[in-house]
Amino acid sequence: MISGRLAGFLLQLSVITALATSMGASLAAPAVRAQTDPAARITTCMQDEMASRGTVGAQIAVMRGGVMLYERGFGRKHRDRPDLVDTGTMFRIGSTTKTLTALALMQLVEQGRLDLDLPITTYLDDFALAEPGQAEAITTRHLLTHSSGLHDTSAMSEADFWGTQEPGAMRAWVDRQRGQQPYAPPGRFWNYSSANYMYAGQILERITGETYPNYMDDRVFEPAGMTNTTMHAAEGVARGNFAYGHYNSPFSGMLEIFTLDEANNWARHPTGYANATAGDLVRFAALMMDGGRALLSADSVQAMTTRQRHRDLRADQYYGLGTFVEYFDGNEMVHHDGGAWGWTATMKWIPEAGVAVATTTNGGGLLQSATACALRAYVPRGPDRSTPCRLDRERWNDFVGTYEGSVNSGVSWNFEITRPGGGNLQMRLIREGEEDRVEMLGQDCGRWVNAGPGTFNAPGLGEITFIDDPVEPGVVWLRNRFFVAGKRPVGAEATSTAVATSVATATPTPISTSTATAEAQDEVHRIYLPALMRGE
């Protein structure tokens, strides 16, 4: 049974996810005084946004063409102490770490030690999921593009954020994931999951025989010239120049302040536990824009920053290998932000202009307006790529139906979507052992333009997105980072679906319509859309 406390915890995580993965309207132009000096504009933007958010300390850095144009620290390292943040102060960078992890995996690809399109069981040979063939259907590319179909089980309780600090922690975590039930066949759609990068980090450890922190420090940060970046939190603390995390805990209801090594978990390192400065983040971005230099080939950089998976949100929003790719003011932008329970970071670059901006904070949320201000200070506006609202309420009829699925804890969360009187969509959430919950789903032109035509607001649960399955006609998915459910076709629609699935491999294989059968379709859903009877 899922408790109200767990539901609240999931909502807290959903908020953090939105901070780490959303862009669009969040980069609205900040209100700043008219200034011709870019540095003065950025300073004003930083001070204004920090004041509005109650940010204790922060950094910002801007590079263009490999030259540092602006780099400065603001505020204090600790709310109650006088020590000021400078350009060498280390902050935890949260999910921005995923870009660094993806680069490390691409190094192994270039060395011929890793094939992104082989099953992950090639490298995790003792790993198995609920049904035969499920693990073998997942590739490392699925992990790096958040399309594995595996639930985000990276943090199921408060203890996971300050977990074990020992070299075998990641392997032990992966071992505990055996036997879980994926929520969808791999490759069907994008769904952000920190767990994907924990599996990827374990693949790196198995291939290299090194711990992930040592590999990153020695093979990525040092050759990249990122002298103020480390995976070893204790080392960051020992240097003496670090920002304390300031975290308003939903568990204690209080502000908690801690050091880098107090808030640490070796199993979660690849997802968001690098410690860095804003200056080092723009140095990394500049290296990427310069073809990878000593770290990676230009072809591998291109693969990382190419639109690999559509996010099924706004039309221009894609994910590469450890990067988000979309437009900002008409210019293509590559980025990855992060939030780490007491710290945040932004890292964005516009390749055509050669400009990179990064920020770090020790609480208070992402400095998106200041980041946008810095980009606009040095990058001219590009072509108009705005999308006019084409709100299509008749399309909502396709989303009506019964969806079967689960929350990331594995507990049944099923949904009945209706449209009373032909108006807004209504969602009935059916949970094990709890009363059904009914909410009206909201969508307007602002959400349609900024989040995509399939995305709605579900009060108390955050955003949900309806996605048409790209392989199985008639199948629709209801997606949130922490719960996923699917609506299967019924009756004649199911018998005409031109897809069968090999149970041995769980890999969808197109076949002719004449040979598709209801039995084959049922096999697909037996594996990936189980009935999840209450009490099972």
Description:
By secondary structure, the protein is an alpha+beta fold. It has helices at residues 4-21, 38-53, 97-110, 140-144, 169-176, 194-208, 212-221, 233-239, 269-272, 278-289, 298-305, 368-378, 445-451, 492-495, 518-528; strands at residues 57-64, 67-75, 91-92, 245-248, 255-258, 275-276, 309-310, 318-319, 324-328, 331-335, 338-339, 344-350, 355-361, 401-407, 413-418, 426-431, 437-440, 455-458, 462-468, 476-479, 483-487, 499-501, 508-510. Strands 1, 2, 7, 8, 9, 10, 11, 12 and 13 form a nine-stranded antiparallel β-sheet that branches.
Terminal Cα separation, in Å? 10 Å
Strand tally, please?
Answer: 23
- The coarse silhouette is globular
Radius of gyration: 23 Å
Helical content band: 25-40%
Count of alpha and pi helical runs: 15
